[in-house]
């Protein structure tokens, strides 16, 4: 396996106006003092026109948006802390995007005062950050961008397992002529691999498709390999990804030519075992990348002939190593009943073929949850119950489980009920610890509102992170325990 192992290039000198000098002297590496915030406050964001009476295409407390960003949290057993990031905002605003970083200390049961690393100078939650931790304990924050209008940044902590001081990394990517700054990426998903170091899937706008799916690796987070284009069918793609050892994979949908980004359909899968040199479908058939035709051996299911739209939620390898994808499908992109049933579907590779099963239904395309593999069950934690703002993004959080590897599902417990706002975008930490098992935010999808941050433990008890903190570390407030299990809404396999 061959990966780029270039020497670290000189670090960038970045000025407030976002200028980047690719070969600035290393001693001028900008050190950023992460500023303590007054408490946990998530960003509110909306996208799409307001559709009476159901609201925007999607909106609300989107501090852990979107499904194509990951991860937001990583548990580090060496420090016994879960480090996490989210899109925050200022004390004076609900919509000014700040890149926040914090941790939960499992030894004390306390959360720290969150830190502000960066004001992204936008209100667009597509610019939300993602986080990783390297083997030396350095915490990395990847500040994404929505398209090419704004730059992206990479920061790493000066000290291991610390969130107080960061250095801005002058990342570069290999090109045929040498290298150039790696300073623009959208929908970043960054993983760790023992062989490759950092493994990243991301989107590049207009290269050549409107949204082109990309792949890259880096041993050190500074020097990145040349980009590998994975898919560029018609108007492009959204993708989600997973990495297990030397194996890296993604699933993606596509936007048919002339129909626009709201008409996302079909589902495809590709994986690599050699650092991106070659790619294949789940059956082992080689797939030429970039995929440029809807009729590809990478195709999992043809939703287009069914008239269904496909919204990506999660991708994982099950305990046997088989890929499992979680999606929501619907008849259309608009909020409200006009787009039909929003069906949660699991697609799993089993006995040499892709098999589909239905988990449940919810009331919005952008309801988003995470898939877990536990010793005696598979589990999904997601906002599948209608919330206080029905037909808006998110809802009440429910736990679903399967005892037969995803063939059939039963409703276990409701983690939230009687909430003020809809809960949105439930995110699974890497190496999730039982005490910090999922992270999400809330908010009113109908109008700008405050947004709070939450997490739950594996038992389903929900905790709200403090909006105002009087001390640097506090025990978070318990706001709900799971309700009595209810199996009446289990769904059959299809």
Can you walk me through this structure?
A hairpin with a 7-residue loop joins strand 14 (153-157) and strand 15 (165-168). The protein is mainly β. The strands form 10 sheets. Strands 4, 7, 8, 9, 10, 11 and 39 form a 7-stranded antiparallel sheet that branches. Strands 3-15-14-13-12 form a 5-stranded antiparallel sheet, with no helix packed on it. The protein contains no helices and 40 strands. Mean pLDDT is 92; it is low at 1-27 and 486-494. The two termini are 40 Å apart.
Briefly say what this structure is.
This protein is mostly beta strands and 494 residues long. It contains no helices and 40 strands.
Q: Find the count of extended strands (DSSP E, 2+ residues).
A: 40
Specify the overall morphology: globular
Q: Structural class of the helices, strands and pairings? A: mainly beta
Q: Please tell me how large the radius of gyration is.
A: 21 Å
Number of helices: 0
Overall mean pLDDT score? 92
Proportion of strand residues: 35-45%
Low-confidence stretches: 1-27, 486-494
Fraction of residues in helix: under 10%
Kindly report how far apart the N and C termini lie. Answer: 40 Å
Specify the biggest β-sheet.
7 strands, antiparallel
Please describe the topology of this protein.
Elements: E1 13-14, E2 20-21, E3 31-33, E4 35-36, E5 44-47, E6 58-61, E7 73-76, E8 81-88, E9 98-105, E10 110-112, E11 115-119, E12 129-133, E13 139-143, E14 153-157, E15 165-168, E16 172-175, E17 178-181, E18 186-193, E19 197-205, E20 211-218, E21 223-224, E22 228-231, E23 239-244, E24 247-254, E25 265-272, E26 299-301, E27 309-317, E28 323-330, E29 342-350, E30 353-362, E31 370-374, E32 377-385, E33 396-402, E34 410-414, E35 422-427, E36 438-443, E37 453-456, E38 462-464, E39 473-474, E40 477-480
Parallel strand pairs: 16-21
Antiparallel strand pairs: 1-2, 3-15, 4-11, 5-6, 7-8, 8-9, 9-10, 9-11, 10-39, 12-13, 13-14, 14-15, 16-17, 18-19, 19-20, 20-22, 23-24, 24-25, 25-26, 27-28, 28-29, 29-30, 31-32, 32-33, 33-34, 35-36, 36-37, 37-38, 38-40
């Amino acid at each position: 396996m061959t990966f780029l192992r270039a020497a670290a290039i000189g670090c960038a000198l970045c000025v407030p106006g976002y200028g980047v000098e690719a070969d600035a002297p290393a001693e001028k590496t900008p050190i950023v003092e992460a500023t303590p915030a007054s408490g946990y406050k998530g960003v509110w964001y909306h996208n799409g026109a307001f559709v009476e009476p159901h609201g925007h295409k999607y909106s609300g407390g989107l501090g852990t948006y979107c499904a194509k960003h990951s991860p937001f949290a990583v548990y580090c057993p060496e420090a016994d802390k879960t480090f996490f990031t989210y899109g925050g905002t200022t004390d004076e605003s609900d919509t000014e995007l700040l890149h926040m970083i914090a941790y939960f200390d499992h030894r004390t049961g306390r959360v720290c005062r969150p830190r502000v690393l960066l004001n992204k100078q936008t209100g667009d939650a597509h610019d939300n950050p993602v986080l990783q931790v390297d083997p030396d304990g350095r915490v990395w924050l990847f500040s994404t961008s929505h398209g090419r209008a704004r730059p992206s940044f990479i920061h790493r902590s000066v000290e291991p397992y610390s969130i107080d001081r960061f250095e801005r990394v002058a990342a570069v990517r290999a090109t045929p002529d040498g290298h150039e700054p790696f300073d623009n990426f959208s929908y970043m998903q960054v993983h760790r691999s023992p062989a490759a170091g950092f493994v990243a899937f991301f989107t590049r706008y207009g290269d050549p498709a409107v949204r082109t799916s990309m792949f890259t690796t880096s041993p050190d987070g500074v020097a990145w390999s040349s980009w590998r284009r994975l898919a560029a069918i018609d108007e492009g793609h959204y993708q989600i990804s997973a990495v297990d050892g030397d194996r890296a994979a993604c699933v993606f949908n596509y936007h048919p030519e002339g129909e626009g980004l709201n008409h996302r359909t079909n589902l495809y899968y590709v994986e690599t075992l050699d650092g991106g040199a070659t790619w294949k479908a789940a059956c082992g058939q080689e797939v030429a990348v970039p995929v440029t035709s809807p009729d590809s051996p990478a195709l999992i299911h043809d939703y287009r002939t069914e008239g269904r739209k496909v919204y990506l939620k999660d991708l994982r390898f099950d305990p046997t190593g088989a890929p499992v994808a979680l999606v929501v499908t619907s008849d259309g992109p608009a909020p409200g009943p006009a787009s039909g049933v929003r069906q949660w579907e699991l697609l799993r590779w089993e006995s040499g073929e892709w098999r589909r099963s239905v988990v449940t239904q919810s009331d919005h395309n952008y309801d988003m949850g995470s898939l877990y593999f536990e010793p005696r069950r598979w589990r999904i934690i997601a906002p599948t119950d209608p919330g206080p703002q029905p037909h808006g993004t998110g809802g009440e959080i429910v736990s679903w489980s399967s005892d037969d590897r995803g063939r059939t599902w039963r409703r276990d417990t409701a983690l939230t009920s009687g909430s003020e706002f809809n809960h949105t975008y439930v995110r699974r930490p890497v190496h999730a610890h039982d005490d910090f098992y999922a992270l999400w935010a809330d908010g009113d999808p109908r109008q700008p509102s405050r947004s709070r941050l939450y997490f739950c433990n594996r038992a389903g008890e929900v905790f709200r992170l403090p909006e105002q903190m009087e001390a640097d570390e506090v025990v978070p407030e318990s706001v709900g325990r799971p309700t009595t299990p209810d199996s009446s809404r289990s769904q059959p396999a299809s």
